[in-house]
Fold these 2 entries.
Entry 1:
Amino acid sequence: MSTEVPPSTHATTQTAETVSSALNRRSFLRNGMAAGAAATVGAGVLSNNVPVFASDRPAPAVTKGDIAILRFLAAAEILESDLWQQYTELGGVQDSEESGLNGGSPLYMQALQILDSDMPQYIHDNTDDEKSHFAFINSFLKSVGADPVDLSVFATLPSSRATGARDMGRLTNLMNLNVNTSFWTRYRSATNNPDLDPTLVFGQAEMIFNRTAIPRSDDDLIGPAHIAPFNIPDHLKAIAFTAGFHFAFIEQGGSSLYPSLAQRVTNADVLRILLSIGPTETSHFQTWHDKAGNVLSVVDIDPVTGSKVVFKQLTTNQPESLQANLIMPEPTAFLSRKFPPCSIVRPTKTKGAAMGAVKALSDDGLFIGQSSDFFTTLTGLAEAADAAEREV
């Protein structure tokens, strides 16, 4: 097992530089959209020491910091919805609950079902959940006089050309991913916690970089198969396995983000929102964490990017840190090593949590091809969320 984080591709390096540049230019928050949102929060809501909704007790009002946190989370949920929509179009259950579905990609669905026969249903339901999150948060923002978040102007990235995918602009890129699989070893560590060991590099379960997680065209559906099932090309198996680990990577980020930002919330209703949505992200992560452990041993060289992936089967002959059935969070150090180990979500340190999420998604390759205005907007929202402070 390697202990190195997968090397960033040239495109990912450019993306990281774009994020850094956007930060240095000062955020969009201070000069534009996000600042306007904070300014438009109803004065009555912020000045009165009453909760948003009726209650028999006084409570802190919704603050500008609360609004900033909710706006960043709305943006994060919109981005999640965009990527999950792409997965659903090609690999999810094709029913009337999701609009615009065209029958999917049956062979891609079969490849995903190597991980679990219910994968299409889980993908469908995860998509539905993320859409409900951003719709609710935006509705709540409007109810307190704040502007909802709309990133549709940035939906300019190309879609897959595979049969089943809609021809429309996207916010996210699923075709050049560098999937950080260190969550696998981090959640199995009985001694280390990224909150207490910020410089420790947790080992990767699989090395996945510059890989596509969806068929880019029907060309990705053909090729030889050297391992069973032989009706599914090994190249398509590798695409599905990349998706399986990407699912877990995305949802473990949300699992950490909500409790991290909840520590900065003032209003009880806003806190309730974060404490209620956050556990659903953890539920998603637990599901995908389990399914990713069913990958098969397969080697593939991508015919488009030239990137090689070597998936190893995690179910047999593996050290404990890679054993597939150890998906419960191992008790580990928490808050201080003077306390006994505790099974926890990790990390949950609140400082820089929002910008940490932006960096992780950028390093993932999810925003390759996005404009500088997109990064300015996203980093502005993240900066504002990280600057929020719980008021007494």
Entry 2:
Amino acid sequence: MKTLDSIPTHKMERVGKLVTTGLRVGSNYLKFYGKNVLQGEPDREALDEANAKDIYDGLKTLRGSALKVAQMLSMEKNLLPKAYVEQFGLAQFSVPPLSGPLVTRLIRKYLGSSPEVLFDTFTTQSINAASIGQVHRATKNGKKLAVKIQYPGVANSIGSDLAIVKPIAERMFNLRGKATAKYFKEVEERLLEETDYTIELENSRFFASQCAHISNLIFPKYYPEWSNQKILTMDWMVGEHLSEYCSKNDNSQKVNDKLGQTLWDFYMFQMHQLKKVQADPHPGNFLVSEHHQLVAIDFGCVKIIPEDFYVPYFELSKPQNIADDLKFESLLYTLEILKQEDNSKEKEFFTSLFKEMMLLFTKPFHQETFDFGNDAFWEAITNLTKTLSENPQLRKMDGSRGSEHFIYINRTFLGLYHLLHDLKAVVKTNSYVTLF
């Protein structure tokens, strides 16, 4: 794979790259409509594949928040065409790495010495490269280590990247008014935290200690002496990424259920006991060991759940509250889904919409066990998502609804559901039912 000697960090450089990408996409559309005129039946899938590839090729040279957006979108399997999901999914752990000389310069800059001085061995070619940083293999005093190096300029480009993305996002999600600022602020704060590896080091050690009792779950050990804001060093963990494991056809259902139960227990403990959660549950953040243990290896994106959001959020999932119109409406106001200035039509529309959504998405919590491989459940989610994306009435209404805390908490649950679906896991979901 081709390596990179530099990454665009200035706003104009990054805007220029996005403009070039836009021109390529425009060219793809011209070819598509040209074939429509000449052949009558152009290949829409081919257009999606060409656009997805060109967009991803542009984003992967930018890295940082631009590529992080692609990574987040790759989890939206019900919203995006398959070609986009597959291309953007590469952002999880497989993008062109930084060159060896650049890696060596970064190690010297951030740790004060060359890698061959600091470690007994150090592989300048990265093993995994993702949106914020890339991982190298090293050894020290007989320990096998993973050294994660952050791409240069990532933190400084977040503000300018979001400024570019903001008008696009506002149009896509029909966001209006000053209220939208809180959503972009929430995203910017989480992204900035992800670019500070001292925060990730603290979070990683916290979760490893607090969740050590969870069956079948293991964590690497972390090394502060070889870590700082731009470098994070931990044990090298042996295993295959969860996506690679799920892609095999000969997995045991018993093992899949065990891994699924581990994921469920891990996230429910974070949600309900710690009130602090790893909010980026994608396959690149988990390994499956040779003994079929789940290995959690990334705590860059962590969301603290405020009590004044936690209580109404989970109250909203109780069947008795969904059935109680007055209680349900009250919770919608508390969570900022309904607004005092809503007219009767808006109030009726959003109340009905969220009741339908809650009845579907909380199904796993209302049973002793739940089959996340159930085709009917996923077909219902797909149909509801498609209906919402195509609803002309919704497109005319202000989409600036809900607390900013919804962004990462909903992302966490949807990501968890997708992982469990990939495993086709049957999970005992009533483990924390008393906490609801």
